[in-house]
Write a structure and sequence with these properties.
The protein is mainly α. The protein is built from five helices and no strands. The chain has a single domain, classed as Ferritin.
């Protein structure tokens, strides 16, 4: 894979990470549970750090790094706010929407890992994908708990 293709791939992951950062932050502002709020704020910071790590890798490759999320991410955050209003900002509704965002992030990372990335880049992307998977699994578990409580 050429450096230009690698830079494009990393820039897409930067956008994904920024979407995660903004999404978790937005979700933290809409949940009622203090524990969830703190969890989402920690995840937002982790996503922000992932974006910074990817930006540094792009710079090492001589590229210009993205510094914002995607339009789809902005729409997702808007939907979190709208859905929260419609559903009365229930923690379950926010968890469901947060899990959907993590599904998108996982797809992006899996796609990137399917490309011919150089070993040092692949290592970074693999580590970050594992973090996204942990976030996804934790949000899914919390969503399932919230569903069981609501039943």
């Amino acid at each position: 894979m050429t450096d230009d293709n690698t830079i494009d791939t990393l820039n897409k992951l930067i956008e994904t990470s920024k979407d995660g950062e903004y999404g978790f932050r937005t979700s933290s502002e809409n949940v009622r549970s203090t524990d969830l709020r703190q969890l989402f704020l920690r995840r937002a910071e982790e996503c922000g750090q992932a974006a910074r790590d990817l930006q540094a890798q792009v710079a090492r490759l001589g590229g210009s790094a993205e510094d914002d999320g995607t339009m789809a991410g902005a729409a997702h955050r808007g939907w979190v706010a709208v859905k929260g209003t419609i559903a009365g900002y229930t923690d379950l509704a926010i968890l469901e929407e947060t899990e959907r965002g993590e599904d998108v992030a996982l797809k992006s990372y899996r796609s990137a890992l399917g490309l011919g990335l150089a070993p040092e880049v692949r290592s970074l992307v693999q580590r970050q994908q594992e973090g996204v998977q942990r976030n996804h699994d934790q949000v899914r578990m919390l969503r399932d708990q919230a569903r069981n409580t609501a039943s």
